[in-house]
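User: Okay, second chain of the day. Same drill as before: sequence in, structure tokens out.
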Amino acid sequence: MSTDAVSADTWHDYARSQLHPVLEGALHCFTLHGYHGTTIRMIAAASRLSVAGVYHHYPSKHAILVAVMSQAMEDLWQRSIAADAAAQGGPVDRFVNIVTCLLEFHTQRRDEAFIALTEIRSLEANARADHIAKRDRQQRLVESVVEDGVAAGAFTTEHPRDASRAVVTMCTSVSDWYRPDGALSSSELAARYCGIALGAVGGHTQTGGPVSA
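Assistant: Same drill. Structure tokens below.
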């Protein structure tokens, strides 16, 4: 799905990734071998292009990594703001939608998410700063919803920023271990983690009862 196509109706939809063939080949190689263990020749072979063909599209291996990570972060961001906009109620609904979005992204786009999480160390200074800014933007969205929930009396945590950070870390780590043939489907895992996340922020159900994780 193109990030331009994400809306309040489609943020759940995960069709086949529409990465450029070079980026798709690179993603496969980075996931298997890591950035530093991957060569341009390996990317070319995975992309079914010549080495010259790869360089026609991207000037360096680093530029390819930046493109993979940037597209992953933008996809997650567009889905997150669409999920937030789709919430029909107050902070609880917004929080549940955003946590669901995080979980679905890190299971449905787990290779992209894994590389975006683990290869920050391989980015050059300017690219690293840009990536961290995008990561922090995502974190601030969760924090703002939790803070709104505390202000509205929907959440009782005394440490909204710490609780938000714990929730995001819990969600992003899923890409490291989730497998689609495991015990839980993506949607089942999202539902379970929403309960845990609501417990972390001192959440309440819409009827006013506390949520048990």
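The CA atoms of residues 85 and 153 lie 21 Å apart.

User: Thanks, on to the next one.
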